[in-house]
Every structure is written in C-alpha cells, then in structure tokens.
Amino acid sequence: CAAAPSSIAIVGPDDPAHYVLDDQSLGAGFSVQSGTARSVIDDAVAAGHLKLGTELRAALAAALRKDGYKVVAAGSDAVLDVSISTAGFYRDPFHRPFAPSLLIHVKLVDAATREVRFEQTYAYVDGDPPSWVVHLRPGPGFRFASEDELAADPGRVVRALRAMIAPLAGAIADALTRRS
Fold first, then answer.
1. This model's pTM is above 0.70
2. Residue 54 DSSP SS3
3. Residues of the chain falling short of pLDDT 50
4. How many angstroms separate the first and last alpha carbons of the chain?
C-alpha cells in the first residue's frame, strides 16, 4: 500500500454554468428541467453571490487541513481532482418537495506515478442514487413545494445550495483520511 500523501493540490471544481430544476414527479423516466425555474435558480445564485465550485474548493482545503494534510497550489504529493456534474434542485417521482441536489466526482491521483489512489462519486440529494455513489441526504430545512416557492425566496435557495458544501467537504476529507 502506498504511503499517504502529506500534501494535496486541489484542482476544480468549476462553478456550474447553470443550475437545474429536475422534476421527476411526472412519472418514471421523465425529467423536466423548466427554463423558467432554472432561470430563477440562476438569478438567485447570481444575486446571492454564490460561487459553488470556489466555495466547495475552499471547504475541502479547510477539511483536509483539519485532517492533517498540507494543501498547496503546486509541488504536491497528490492531486485531488473535483468536478461538479449537476447542481440545483430535484424532486423525485414520489412528489416530495424540491430539495437541493449536487452530484460531484472526486479523484485523488499520485503526483509522481499518476496512479489513481482514490475515486468516488458523491450525491447530495433527496432521492436514491445508485449503490456505488456515496449518498448524503439534505436536511428538512430546505424544501420547496413548487417552482413558485423557489422563485419567491431566492435567499433561501442560495442558503440551501450553500448548506451542501460543508457536509460534502467533510465526507470527502474523512474518506481520504480513512484510506491513509
């Protein structure tokens, strides 16, 4: 087993270009992403100055430092590559309220050998992702009954999206520490 890295450089994630509203309550296999609601989420993010990728990277750096890693910009033992696949709000086929959702992929690569030392997908969603995904479920405080409710409270939309950051950063740092 390779020695645990003492220093890590974090690459990504980029801030999402758009946030989605994924409504699967119309039946299995249907996913409606409303242009109006999506625009409402994008507007809320802009007004709330949310930089999800930037804020997630900062939270990851803090969590890794807390676990004893040195986080550096260059010259590291390993590189943690983080990408956001999807960010926004999701309602499942069972008509539960919309809840914040984030799907990210992380990969830790040895800087010298290029060997992948850790790779995992994380889903912060009020649904049931595949079993190979680490699942974090949002708390009850950030549910929205409808698109209209999302549009009516942009500050709460941003708070809901920001609430995903710390639990995900902590879960990733904990997983890397356990693998050491």
1. yes
2. helix
3. 1, 28-32, 35
4. 9
